[in-house]
Amino acid sequence: xxPREFYDLxxxxxxxxxxxxxxxxxxxxxxxxxxKEPVNLPSTDLRPVLERTLGVPLFQEQAMQIAVxxxxxxxxxxxxxxxxxxxFKRMGTIGTFRDRFLAGMAExxxxxxxxxxxxxxxxxxGEYGFPESHAASFALLVYASAWMKCHHPxxxxxxxxxSQPMGFYAPAQIVRDAREHGVEVRPVSVNHxxxxxxxxxxxxxxxxxxxxxxxxxxxxxxxxxxxxAARGNGYPDVESLWRRAGVPPAALERLAEGDAFTCIGxxxxxxxxxxxxxRAPKPLPLFGPEGEGITEAPPDLPHMTLGExxxxxxxxxxxxxxxxxxxxxxxxxxxxxxHGALAAAPVRVDVCGLVITRQRPGTASGVxxxxxxxxxxxxxxxxxxxxxxxxxxxVIGGRLLRVAGRLQREGAxxxxxxxxxxxxxxxxxxxxxxxxxxxxxxxxxxxxxxRGDEARRPVPTKELPPHHPARQPRSARHPRDQxxxxxxxxxxx
Length: 493
Prior knowledge:
It contains 23 helices and 9 strands. The two termini are about 25 Å apart. With about 500 residues, the chain is of the alpha/beta class. The strands form 2 sheets. A 5-stranded mixed β-barrel has the order 4-5-6-8-7. About 40% of the residues lie in helices and about 10% in strands. The protein has 3 domains: about 5-130, no CATH class; about 150-285, DNA polymerase, domain 1 (Orthogonal Bundle), CATH 1.10.150; about 320-493, CATH 2.40.50.140.
């Protein structure tokens, strides 16, 4: 479409509805707009009705106007036609107008083929089409959103994050897109964050996006409110936050898991250690600071690998500012083309990425549309029914997919038509152990290895408390199931 004016947005909103798609209106309009076929207005009477949409009816009002102008319907008959469009799926009454419509157009000199095509298009509106006013209202929201995203990308991303859950895109994709458009995204911080995501001024006059406490899984808004209220000039350590804000140790653990203590010099493991010290029983007097005991030196905890940090970020925040999982896995998956390089890639390529969304519209004749994401961008994959039947389990259930196929380019839009689909979801559960042998599938991580404060030794989960972070549901023991918890997709069937 490449819209040039506001009315183009109105048409874009209307043309992707099931009615115009089922009525065969999409390709004729696009071809005429792009100059690939001439605009055909069958009569001067229909010019006022169809001229703005290049001779193709796209709105419900046009269907009624065609019936009045070209088929001789009375206003009452046109109103009954409108009602039949609204109740077509339940009542199936639109077919009763067929003979009357075709006969009326024949009396006025229209070709039978054109009359049949007009009625088929009107019949398509029974599958849900938009009135022009409805499409215009949606288009106004589209225009305002696009303007905000263009001129105020930080504020736009901030508002989307604060409105979650919603729409096609999860927080990880919203943050990635914002950073690609030059927005600085700052991590959750006990000394800077509020419950909501907020905007902070930068020295250059622009705005940075500060992630809020709402991004930390399991943290209550009430606890976040107390943390903000008691913050004053900031918290120097974990214990001062606990004493001043009065939040329970469980909330401190959620903050530590979300890496919110980095601002006071504590990494994830150090912060968890400090929180556990608060929860530990007080030492006996003989071994306390006033007794004969000696003060214990701070522990020298091992540093977490980048893969471990990314896994922990996704567990706690559902996103990571450190790296994309594909950035870590790519060295061990040869032969792939990055999504950002597809525009200049050869026709046949292999790609791999996290599944963002899966769509199977009822109007697509069984075709499935999958959106993959890697560290460079997204790739739109088209899975035809025959390919879907061969790779059904991977297409429906995979979280990390490798797809081989051929590229289809239409102007600035590139799609990948899938030939083969391979589920590599088990690789995601191995990110916490960065050894190449593990990344190549030699060994899956134990369920106890996902937390930064747990020793790497077998721990029977039946002996752990019900809410211990190492305890996972029985359905999440397999690496593919772990991947579903770590990197969920948004599926629309």
